[in-house]
Design brief:
The chain is mainly alpha-helical. It has 2 helices and 2 strands. The longest helix is centred in the C-terminal third of the chain and has 17 residues, at 42-58.
Amino acid sequence: MRLLTTLVLASAAALPLMPLAHADTFPDRPITLVIPFPPGGPTDAMARTLAAEMKDRLGQPMVG
């Protein structure tokens, strides 16, 4: 009987957590990539390559 009571209480405590499993997907809007260096340099070229790969993997546009 004690085990049954414990299981019922544990289930009741876990019930409010159920909506978290169906939360919105991340990211749900375009991602802004901030590069603190001037355009045209090696950092800019690497960031553009990285942004293109991230766009393909995440399925979200990258804004730079």
